[in-house]
Amino acid sequence: MTSASSPYTDGKIDFTYQGETFQTYYKLFGDVKGSQTTPLIVLHGGPGLVHDYLVPFSDLTSKFGRPVILYDQLGNGLSTHLKEKPPTFWTVDLFIDELVNVINHFSIQDSFNLAGHSWGGILASEFT
């Protein structure tokens, strides 16, 4: 789990999709603005998993100064839950758009790395 030497900030990012605004919960280890290293966004598996099991990636912050961004994808964890949405709502494009929104929020469009586990790996490959 996170060591005391890996401080983080967390919060929620507004995410507008198909005319509705939702919230994406994130946890940022390190500082993307002052870092000399490329930020890493780590995408969780699922559906139904959350960012918590990926917290050990924060060791990259404490050991190498690399900013690490974790977030709960829409419908999971501390992000907006949408139980009333039909299966047709839940598309790869939705999650790509949410990822782009996270990237834009942190203003790292020009330089970032992605890592993903399970569904997160599929999402990362679809993004690139």
Q: What order do the helices and strands follow?
A: EEEHEHEH
Strand line-up of the largest beta sheet: 1-2-4-3-5
Q: What is the first-to-last residue Cα distance? A: 29 Å
For the biggest sheet, the summary is: 5 strands, mixed
Radius of gyration: 14 Å
Helix content: 10-25%
Number of strands: 5
Shape: globular
Q: Which stretches are poorly predicted, pLDDT < 50 over at least 5 residues?
A: none
Taken as a percent bin, the fraction of beta residues is 25-35%
Kindly state the mean pLDDT as a whole number?
A: 94
Q: Tally the helices: what do you get? A: 3
Structural class of the secondary elements?
alpha/beta
Describe this structure in words.
The chain is α/β, with parallel strands linked by helices. 23% of the residues lie in helices and 26% in strands. It contains 3 helices and 5 strands, in the order βββαβαβα. The chain has helices spanning 59-64, 92-105, 119-127; strands at residues 8-17, 20-29, 40-43, 68-72, 113-116. It has a 5-stranded mixed sheet with strand order 1-2-4-3-5. A hairpin with a 2-residue loop joins strand 1 (8-17) and strand 2 (20-29). The longest helix is centred in the C-terminal third of the chain and has 14 residues, at 92-105. The radius of gyration is 14 Å and the shape is globular. The chain starts with 7 loop residues before the first strand and ends with a helix.
